[in-house]
Design brief:
- By secondary structure, this protein is of the alpha/beta class.
- The chain has two domains: about 210 residues, Spore Coat Polysaccharide Biosynthesis Protein SpsA, Chain A (Alpha-Beta Complex); about 60 residues, no CATH class.
- About 45% of the residues lie in helices and about 15% in strands.
Length: about 300
């Protein structure tokens, strides 16, 4: 009935797999859990190897790092059951009826996205505050809000897709590194007229990173955004709309000039003890704008 597919990269996925296996067994459904390690450090492989001895679990180590899109395609091709649940390796399942909630809305000929949330409690390390705030107040959206723009509000951390649709619409493998591969996938689904249904069945994001790493990954994502925009493989995001608005009103040079003056203070705020999300959005728009100027 259900194939659960988990790409692994430097994560201990044992608690996640134990929870999922327990919920599936309790429901007495046919299931498999595929865990493909995508070139993790030895310490993580050593921990996760014990999953190979679990009933219903297939743990496999890749001989090379395939990347975020290719590893998902490998998992999808290896799946046996007609409905496939993709979960990130740093996911935490907090709800005791997580699998049951998905089973209740099956079958569905399309994609079902359950959502993402973050811990209510602030991280003790202030360097992780920026990522936590962004996740809690930007990424964590109830289904009611996500349904207003189902494709733009899709993320690949926690979704179900039928095997038939995935065969027709796998992840594109032309992007490298981190960022926007989920929106690229959503755009592909839209162009092929495959619906996305949003429900409230979130997983908790466990991989909260310090500000330095988070900002570095954000830069990587913006570079991916530029590439995907050039290839016309992504919808118009809020960031792109803001850029076009500045350009339309001839405010882009002034915006860049002002931001360059304020940049040290903005960067200090984002890495500090009280980061503001509006500063982050401003910073992202600036970083995108100066990169856009190099490719226009």
């Amino acid at each position: 009935m259900l194939s659960i597919l988990i790409p692994i990269y430097n994560q201990d996925v044992r608690p996640l797999v134990y929870t999922l296996a327990k919920q599936c067994s309790k429901l007495n459904i046919n299931y498999q859990i595929l865990c493909f390690d995508d070139g993790s450090d030895p310490k993580y492989r050593e921990k996760n190897k014990e999953l190979a001895f679990m009933f219903g679990v297939n743990y496999t180590e890749m001989t090379e790092n395939l990347g975020r899109s290719r590893i998902r395609n490998w998992l999808g091709r290896a799946a046996y059951y007609p409905h496939m649940l993709f979960l990130d390796g740093d996911t935490r399942v907090r709800h005791k009826d997580f699998i049951k909630n998905y089973i209740a809305v099956l079958p569905f000929e399309g994609v079902i996205y359950g959502g993402r949330n973050y811990t209510r409690k602030k991280p003790a390390n202030f360097r992780k505050l920026l990522h936590w705030k962004y996740g809690k107040y930007i990424e964590s959206r109830p289904a009611k809000r996500r349904r207003k723009d189902p494709y733009l509000n899709f993320m690949s951390n926690n979704f179900i897709v039928t095997q038939k649709i995935f065969e027709a619409c796998p992840f594109e493998e032309n992007t490298k590194g981190y960022g926007f591969e989920d929106l690229q996938y959503a755009w592909k689904l839209k162009n092929l007229n495959f619906p996305i249904r949003h429900i409230d069945n979130p997983t908790e994001h466990g991989g909260i990173e310090n500000a330095d790493v988070f900002l570095k990954k954000t830069i990587q994502a913006l570079e991916n955004l530029l590439t995907l925009e050039q290839m016309k493989q992504i919808p118009v995001t809020r960031l792109l709309r803001a850029y076009e608005l500045l350009k339309k009103w001839y405010l882009l040079p002034f915006f860049i000039w002002v931001t360059q003056k304020l940049y040290p203070y903005m960067y200090e705020n984002l890495k500090g003890k009280n980061p503001y999300l509006w500063v982050l959005q401003w910073w992202k728009l600036y970083e995108y704008s100066i990169r856009k100027a190099l490719v226009v």
